[in-house]
Amino acid sequence: MATLTSKQNINAIVTAIKAEEQTLRVRYPILNQQNSIAMMILLVSLSALIGVALLYYFAIIPAWLCVLLAAFITSISHELEHDLIHRQYFSNRPLIYHFMMLAVWMMRPNTVNPWYRRRIHLHHHKVSGTEQDLEERLVGNGIRSPWLRAVVVSDGLLGLLINAKRFSREINDFKFLQVFNAGFPFATAYFVTLYGVIVYYTVQWVQPFALPKWGAELLAVAEFFMVVLIIPNVIRSASLNFVTSSMHYYGGVSNILEQTHVITSRWFLPFQLFCFDFGRTHTIHHFVPNQPFYIRQLISKKIRPIMALHGVRFNDLQSLRHANHYPIEKPAAKS
């Protein structure tokens, strides 16, 4: 049988994804109410986050449970932001659209604002796998050193500071202050609180001291936000950054088939839990960007074998040893 070209393999995958989505929409007409579904998901997840915070505030649940629940809830808001960036919801209702953008940013305050991220994310789709892909490089893609990668994956601000000079040399139109300022005011408040609490307890460990009344009250507020929002987002963003920087290739990429591999390894399950199964489903998004995240979840089980048949790699974790470079020896395409 004749070997398919890359274009033919890509078209086969895109066709299968769209066909599976259409089948779902016919079977469940409610899926056509995208705006209503998105707003419901936003309001439920926002209410759940507030509810979990109240349960912790009134000592009904312990801190560790609040952290884990909040980390999972905020992972949903990331998926909503991703879809909003591609204007899947309320594209003709700017007031509602921007309200949703603001809401998902407030739930994930350790990120740049979604309006700036929209620009670098759409650019990511154009230059994925190259040194010009600022979005993926900001979260660790293309880094060979496991120690440096761990720092960038776990702390976006520190990663930006460490890589700023390199990005200035290699990425066209990269401006440090533009990226840094894109986090104001929420990311600014987030990192001030995070580092402030870390510094306080470090100093207390070295040389204990008593806080004035106003200082103790301020610390109590900071500790509350550490549990209900800041530490959950450390877990959420570190999980997402680890998965996405592991599955995107960097270098040697010539088409969509080579931009990502699918991660289904059981070793990644703890991280998948806090990034809404990103490793199993995100590759679908590269083939059909304009598709709600819950559709990807519903069709992924049927689409993964089709992607494998047409040349998409799975669990290529060896690529981490080569700074995510796409393998030189490419598997033969299947007909």
UniProtKB/TrEMBL annotation:
GO biological process: one example: lipid metabolic process
InterPro entries in alphabetical order: FA_desaturase_dom
One Pfam family, short name: FA_desaturase
Keyword Transmembrane helix: yes
Transmembrane intervals: 37-55, 90-107, 176-202, 214-235
UniProt keyword list: Membrane, Transmembrane, Transmembrane helix
Fatty acid desaturase domain boundaries: 61-316
Protein's UniProt name: Fatty acid desaturase domain-containing protein
Lineage: Bacteria, Pseudomonadati, Pseudomonadota, Gammaproteobacteria, Alteromonadales
